[in-house]
Amino acid sequence: MNKIRVRVADWQKDIAEIRRIRETVFIAEQSVPPELEWDADDATAVHFLAFEGDFPIGTARLLPDGHIGRVSVLKDWRGMKVGDALMQAVIAEAEARGLKQQMLSAQVQATAFYERLGFSLVSEEFLEAGIPHVDMVRHSA
């Protein structure tokens, strides 16, 4: 396996790859309605792409208020630390922008993953797009 690398994406130039990953993970695999997946926040978010070699395999976004979302990795690359690399890049970018607090709504099954990265639970379980979620927060030093 090649080394995983993550870079800040250009929404205009990289939209096809971002859409391909998010549509595969959220719409096809998890049955999220397309109208819930795509929103106005995409235009103002900082997007990230994870690559193995030259092939995009994961994506995430950071909103100006410190919300992290749309963290997704293609099935064949899960369990290979791609999510870790993506999240470390997002957190580093948030901190570079002076966002001392990062927030996200995590799917309940991914809670332990985010806890390993320093996030703490701050809500009860709730449904989002029919999937159980919890809100989590991380504070930078």
TrEMBL record:
UniProt keyword terms in alphabetical order: Acyltransferase, Transferase
SUPFAM superfamilies attached to this UniProt entry: Acyl-CoA N-acyltransferases (Nat)
Keyword presence, Isomerase: no
EC number: 2.3.1.-
InterPro entries cross-referenced by the UniProt entry: Acyl_CoA_acyltransferase, Bact_Acetyltransf, GNAT_dom
GO molecular function, one term: acyltransferase activity, transferring groups other than amino-acyl groups
Residue stretches making up the N-acetyltransferase domain: 4-141
The keyword Transferase appears for this protein: yes
Top-level taxon of the source organism: Bacteria
Protein name per its UniProtKB record: GNAT family N-acetyltransferase
Species assigned in the record: Pseudomonas khorasanensis
